[in-house]
Design brief:
The structure is a single chain. By secondary structure, the chain is α/β, with parallel strands linked by helices. The chain has nine helices and 20 strands. Helix 1 runs parallel beside helix 5, helix 1 runs parallel beside helix 9 and helix 2 crosses helix 9. The longest helix is centred in the first third of the chain and has 20 residues. The radius of gyration is 21 Å and the shape is globular. The model has no long low-confidence stretch (mean pLDDT 92).
Amino acid sequence: MSKPLTCDVVVIGAGMVGAACALYAARAGLDVLVVDRGGVAGGTTGAGEGNILVSDKEPGPELELALLSWRLWTELAAGLGAFAEYEAKGGVVVASSPGGLTALERFADAQRAAGVVAEPVAGDTLYALEPHLAPGLPGGVHYPQDGQVMPALAAAHLLRASGARLLTGHRVTDVLRGPDGAVRGVRSDRGDLHAPAVVNAAGTWGGEIAALAGVHLPVLPRRGFVLVTEPLPRRIRHKVYAADYVADVASDSAALQTSPVVEGTAAGPVLIGASRERVGFDRTFSLPAVRALAAGATRLFPFLTDVRATRAYLGFRPYMPDHLPAVGPDPRVPGLYHACGHEGAGIGLSTGTGHLVAQALTGKRPDLDLAPFRPDRFPEEAA
């Protein structure tokens, strides 16, 4: 076996969250090594839409993390925005009935009190924002803070900006621990990597990495499909979704759920989501899911009826039972840190997560209270 590599921290996972952890840890002065069994953005990141959202989060710890992340994304965009196709496009959440609009406006009122810019939009103004929406909609809420990046590009450029060493094609097979139980690095199928700190940014596979360290973290895969159209002139200006999307995100159901989420891209194709179902790591194509996505999108934007879909792809969101990620040090294993379980919000929450993990790694007081994100908040599995 080759001589072990030595660094200050090993980050497991070269997706968006791992890239952000590497960037902020390196900026804090740490020598960082990122390891992934595949390539950069080869998991959930590469199968995402690149959403940076505050609009879909109710007041609480996740929204606080989203607002912190949004501020950090706007800072990064000054230097990396063009490379990552960053767009501060804003979001429009649409109600389909007067009762739905009332509920949506109450939700937005609570968000505004928590620091979100949420602008009520009456019917006429709604069509000024999105002229091609279906007629007769009562209104919605405009969220100018919502944005988007091209996720694979963003992860690659954050990793490059970090200066971290990157080892792709290295599968982590164990978390090394000393006699005192503290982390001493990781073992991969291509050699040992020694470090006093390990960050678990393995996304949907975060529970497996935690198990290698001897702890329980209930990360489950939640499958989702995205439908991609042929390239079009820009006819959809914002990220547009139906108000019931928020309820689907918060649902604990394992059954298939779909709610229309539609947005244009800088390259021309329209991206159509969102579906959710817990079927393990089953990669089988689901015609019912994709049909439901198409039907929902054409209800919002009837012109899409005449547009060709060129492909569909799927990914697995890292779902946690309470819909909050695990972020920060694991009190059960000194030197182990977690940055996983963000479900479908990992792109948007990555910068705040990386920033908070870097603060914890360097002994600084985190900008947010990490207690709601504690990795040991779940009951241990029975032996």
